[in-house]
Specification:
single chain, 14 helices, about 475 residues, mainly alpha
Length: about 475
């Protein structure tokens, strides 16, 4: 007996478009009745497991190659002006290593998608691989290869950067056509732009987190998720991490974003020789922009720096909202603490209500006593005002107690309703069983009555027949 069909979508396996954030998990529980029928399913399970392991390994290698290229790019950007000149043998060596790591990354990305297509063929029991190559999948692979192929190429295609730039000729009558002073500065700007765009390779982090997460590796998670039609996407894994480790996840993300954005701002502002070209000033500017403070003591000077600060402000608002949600959840009382807190508040309000009721009675008695006395109009008005104030305090406390009890009843309404529904369901089941038993006993008694009536009618007919014979 073979049961196939418990499946959820896998990284790179979407039904139509090949979304790279889905993870497909299929289960095949088989009890072979015949060896010829069970062997294909077992082979598919084995092949699928091997392909998933290969995908996980290729994703880890691709992320390592991407991080290696980014680290080499950062080292080249930091050492190029200070230690060696642009276009020197050292610059060409580091750029060559970046190109080699980029080439390896592209090969790993192609191998990853090849395994992805194989997994699609195994899951859907197909033979032709072209069925998996939908338009969305082809566009996604092309965009991914384009993003991973970006790296500095000015040392190969541009002019000789070792030659100093000629001094610009100032002519007030001719307006400048380009903001750059020379072709050398143009290629340097292009190299800086390509260096900053290399951070787009960090999209591989979400894929590595998904494929190496305990949620995907746990068989219980997969089985229960498949039964509830849950897709194991990066969004689901991120929600699990935010629920289990909210502070740790936010802290790691904020620190990595802070350092990356500060270095990109320094890279953009370094050529203009302003204050924000310093790493310390860039860290300060990104921090106050991220926290939406904006003191105004420093500001970006280039368009690239302004874009980085704008993006930092948007991410700061988003992270602040998530941080507020996490802190609110941590500071909120749980169910037991709420019951204890509201119970003690109810006791305290009950004491205050009794005191307020006693004050009302006391003021009524004092007002009655001043009414009986003569020539005490001032004291009479004073006790009237005190009585009205005591009545107002008593009503306010009663309203406060009513609101507190309403809120407490809302907390326990769900559990009480669940208990009531369980009791009603149990009573209905018991009543139904008793009714079935009574109906069965009534049917048996009716059958017995029918048989007794039939036997009685036969006896009566025989007795009447004998009586007629006796009369004759």
């Amino acid at each position: 007996m073979e049961m196939n069909g418990l499946s959820a979508s896998c990284d790179g396996l979407a039904g139509r478009g090949g979304d790279h954030a889905d993870v497909s998990v299929s289960f095949a529980l088989s009890q072979p009745q015949a060896g010829a029928r069970a062997s294909p399913s077992l082979h598919r399970l084995r092949d699928r497991k091997l392909v998933l392991e290969d995908k996980r390994r290729l994703c880890a290698w691709a992320l390592s190659a991407a991080l290696l290229g980014i680290l080499l790019m950062i080292a080249h950007a930091e050492l190029c002006p200070a230690v060696y000149q642009p276009g020197s043998i050292y610059a060409l060596s580091i750029n060559g290593l970046i190109s080699v790591s980029t080439f390896c990354l592209l090969i790993l990305i192609i191998a990853f998608h090849y395994k992805d297509v194989r997994l699609f063929i195994i899951d859907h029991n197909q033979v032709d691989w072209r069925i998996a190559m939908t338009t969305n999948r082809v566009l996604g692979i092309s965009l991914e290869l384009l993003v991973c192929a970006i790296h500095p190429v000015a040392s190969y295609l541009g002019p000789d950067l070792r030659v100093p730039a000629p001094a610009p000729v100032l002519n007030s009558s001719v307006p400048p056509i380009c903001l750059c002073q020379s072709q050398r500065e143009t290629w340097m700007e292009i190299e800086l732009l390509l260096s900053g765009l290399m951070f787009l390779r960090l999209y591989l982090v979400h894929r590595a987190i998904l494929l190496h997460s305990k949620v995907l590796l746990s068989a219980s998670y997969r089985s229960i998720g498949s039964l509830n039609n849950i897709n194991f996407t990066f969004r689901f894994v991120l929600k699990v991490l935010m629920n289990k480790y909210p502070a740790r996840t936010l802290l790691v993300f904020i620190l990595l974003f802070w350092l990356s954005a500060a270095w990109m701002l320094r890279l953009c502002e370094r050529q203009t020789e302003v204050k924000t070209g310093n790493m310390g000033t860039a860290l300060w500017l990104i921090a106050i922009t991220f926290l939406t403070v904006g003191y105004g003591d420093v500001a970006p000077d280039t368009s690239c720096g302004k874009v980085v600060c704008l993006f930092a402000g948007v991410m700061g608002v988003s992270c602040t909202a998530m941080l507020v949600a996490v802190v609110t959840k941590k500071l909120a009382l749980n169910k037991g603490e709420k019951h204890v807190h509201f119970f003690m508040m109810d006791i305290q309000i009950s004491k205050e209500i009794r005191n307020a009721a006693a004050n009302v009675l006391r003021e009524c008695w004092l007002l009655h006593r001043t009414t009986q006395a003569k020539n005490n109009n001032g004291e009479h008005r004073h006790h009237q005002r005190c009585l009205l104030e005591a009545i107002r305090v008593f009503r306010h406390l009663r309203l406060k107690q009513r609101k507190l009890r309403d809120y407490t009843s809302e907390m326990v309404d769900l559990s009480k309703m669940q208990m009531i529904m369980c009791d009603l369901s149990a009573n209905w089941n018991n009543s139904y069983r008793e009714l079935e038993q009574r109906i069965i006993s009534m049917e048996q008694k009716l059958d017995e009555l029918g048989q007794s009536f039939q036997s009685t009618s036969q006896l009566l007919s025989q007795a009447l027949h004998r009586r007629r014979l006796d009369h004759r």
